[in-house]
């Protein structure tokens, strides 16, 4: 049982969650949580007992040295932290974990219990999947919501997916059954460059998250890192004629299937981001 009495009262808190593993191609979604923890100086809240959910022969603990001498064991688990974004009227609870090896139903129930204790009513799950998206184009983000009204209000979709799922899909479903508003955002990561990190996909998730929550997201150096990542993949692709031809084929296929990114909706969304950041900079 998790003890929460020592925690401060939160203001209209929202949960943002991501899990390493099957749901986290290129570590794009867990990269969002890591980035926000650092940028917002998030403070630890609590964590789940790893004994209940992890097979340590599959997801092994890690030995670390502190101060160059003292050894400690870091156990795989799921951790909650609290952030208070500058200029925002609501608190943000960040949830970062590793997809559990067992007892998924109990795992979801325990997370929901923590959310209720903290007064969280809105949840956003982040994920990333491998796809045939060319690295030279904007990263596609699929956004879904737990009910039709929420989806309509946020310009998202109702999920139509059928097939195998990970903890992100299971937890989103559990949130909805538990009466919480459940949103999920998925980035498409090029399957031919799957190794982490993928700052371009992390940046795309952050920008879509900003649109959904109307909270200004700190981007730091992600813009520069995303450009450097794309340039590096360009160079690698140019050294292999088969890869270069495949990327060109993906580009042509995508360009033929979609309208240009500079649509009215895309321009309006980018302008709204600009206004939010300008207001935040003015207030600070």
UniProtKB/TrEMBL annotation:
Segments forming a coiled coil: none
Cellular component aspect of the GO annotation: proteasome complex
Top-level taxon in the UniProt lineage: Bacteria
InterPro entries: Proteasome_assmbl_chaperone_2, PSMG2_sf, Rv2714-like
Pfam family, one: PAC2
Keyword Mitochondrion: no
Record key words, sorted: Proteasome
Protein name per Swiss-Prot or TrEMBL: Proteasome assembly chaperone (PAC2) family protein
The organism's taxonomic lineage, starting at the top: Bacteria, Bacillati, Actinomycetota, Actinomycetes, Streptosporangiales
